[in-house]
Design brief:
Shape: elongated
Strand content: 5-15%
CATH architecture of the domain at 112-214: 2-Layer Sandwich
């Protein structure tokens, strides 16, 4: 009965029956696991996809086999194009930090050391190689000062000026790429050396200084100190 009524109603009103009919989707159904090759709408999209594949392959070949330090050095010097930001950027940063911790100087040459021993009775300057072997040793006694004359600000100032002149005359600055200054004790020669280094006499050496450290010995426990000498 119902089917006859529906058929008669569809014949009488075709527009009502047409709305109830199933309309297939205009989108073309594609099997989810098909092996059909990817199609592009136009030639421009195909060329862009090909260029993107070639660019990714070129980046993988250029960065393959390089350490994090070498990759960062090439990027800073402009020898290679900076690669695009990828998902493994955080991993590369961690590798770089660990490499810098294990090898603080990396591919740079280790520094020479200039030890400034500013004792209250004398001032001694010692230039050493990166392995610790001494190259030049000068004290106030080399300039003619004797006994109590070696202590003071003026002998240390003359000693610093003389030492910087010796470094330039003997050509030792040509072998020094980086210089580390190591202070010890707090005698008058400490301030005198700093004044000479920051003055006109140290203009050729200031650019080589990469680090300034303090190696003053601090007593912690140990034996009893000597009685302080008191005059009068």
């Amino acid at each position: 009965m119902n089917s006859q009524f529906t058929t008669a109603l569809a014949r009488a009103l075709p527009s009502v029956g047409r709305q109830c009919q199933f309309r297939p989707s205009p989108l073309r159904l594609v099997r989810p696991f098909s092996f059909t090759p990817r199609t592009y709408e136009n030639e421009k999209q195909r060329l862009r996809a090909t260029e993107r594949q070639l660019f990714d392959a070129q980046n993988e070949q250029s960065t393959e086999g390089l350490s994090p330090i070498s990759t960062l050095t090439q990027m800073m010097q402009g020898q290679d194009k900076p690669p695009a930001v990828t998902e493994d950027f955080e991993h590369m940063r961690e590798n770089l930090e660990s490499a810098l911790i294990k090898h603080p100087y990396g591919d740079k040459q280790p520094p020479h050391h200039l030890h400034v021993y500013a004792h209250k009775h004398n001032t001694i300057l010692t230039l050493t190689r990166p392995n610790g072997n001494p190259i030049l040793v000068r004290s106030c006694g080399h300039l003619g000062f004797r006994k109590s004359q070696r202590s003071g600000y003026d002998p240390a100032y003359q000693l610093s000026t003389h030492t910087f002149g010796q470094l330039q005359e003997k050509g030792l600055l040509l072998d020094i790429q980086r210089l580390e200054i190591v202070f010890r004790d707090f005698g008058p020669g400490r301030e005198a050396f700093t004044k000479v280094l920051l003055g006109n006499e140290g203009r050729n050496i200031r650019g080589l200084v990469s680090r300034v450290t303090d190696a003053t010995r601090i007593k912690f426990g140990g034996t009893r100190s000597r009685k302080v000498r008191r005059l009068g």
